[in-house]
């Protein structure tokens, strides 16, 4: 559990690194998925939210924020290609429950989902659809502006579904007017 906490600190630090600010992470062990190895005593230099350099014994830039994980294992951010972060509280069960809430309530309830995903090690997600159309876009944009903490999001905007499919109720809520190109089209 201690390693998970340190990973969460690392991911949080990376998500709030400001442009121009330099963060240095001292990693006792670093997972290298390209080689399938574990490297030891690595230094990771992050500038403006981008990893600039990784290696043993790298020079620490002046005024860098240092995160000492020399007794921990660091791994690259994970990617989840099938999420529904912007559909409100996790675990509510029946999707029709989403239509009983306003779009604003659903997206605000989704804010903890974004933080939880990031703190679980996922730095990038693909959100594949929401019952309240465009909530995923709003959540993504809030993360990108730095208003809330969360992973990089690639979003659908609304479900892409077959007639009567799992996402067919998208836009049924009375306060949602879908753009024309999101609406279900009748077959000819």
Helix content: 10-25%
Main beta sheet: 4 strands, mixed
Query: Per DSSP, what share of the residues sits in E-state strands of 2 or more residues?
Result: 25-35%
* Order of helical and strand elements: HEEEEEHEHE
Unreliable stretches covering 5 or more consecutive residues: none
Strand elements, count: 7
Highest CATH level, the class of the largest domain: Alpha Beta
**Strand-pairing-aware structural class:** alpha/beta
Radius of gyration: 20 Å
Approximate shape: elongated
Tally of alpha and pi helices: 3
Q: What is the CATH topology of the largest domain?
A: Translation Initiation Factor IF3
Overall structural domain count: 2
According to CATH, the homologous superfamily of the largest domain is: Amidohydrolase
CATH 2nd-level architecture of the largest domain:
2-Layer Sandwich
Please identify the oligomeric state: single chain
State the separation between the terminal residues, measured CA to CA: 57 Å
Overall residue-averaged pLDDT value: 81
- The order of strands across the largest sheet is 3-2-1-4
């Amino acid at each position: 559990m201690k390693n998970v906490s340190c990973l969460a600190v690392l991911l949080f630090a990376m998500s709030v690194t400001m442009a121009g600010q330099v963060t240095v992470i001292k990693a006792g062990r670093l997972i290298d998925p390209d080689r399938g190895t574990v490297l030891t005593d690595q230094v990771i230099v992050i500038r403006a939210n981008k990893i600039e350099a990784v290696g043993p014994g790298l020079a620490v830039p002046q005024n860098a924020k240092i995160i000492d994980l020399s007794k921990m294992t660091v791994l690259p951010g994970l990617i989840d290609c099938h999420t529904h972060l912007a559909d409100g509280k996790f675990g509510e069960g029946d999707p029709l429950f989403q239509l009983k809430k306003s779009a604003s309530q659903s997206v605000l309830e989704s804010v903890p989902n974004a933080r939880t995903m990031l703190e679980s090690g996922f730095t990038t997600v693909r959100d594949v659809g929401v019952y309240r159309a465009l909530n995923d876009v709003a959540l993504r944009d809030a993360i990108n502006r730095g208003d809330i903490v969360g992973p990089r999001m690639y979003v659908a905007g609304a479900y892409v579904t077959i007639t009567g499919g799992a996402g067919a109720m998208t836009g049924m809520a009375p306060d949602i007017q879908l753009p024309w190109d999101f609406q279900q089209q009748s077959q000819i």
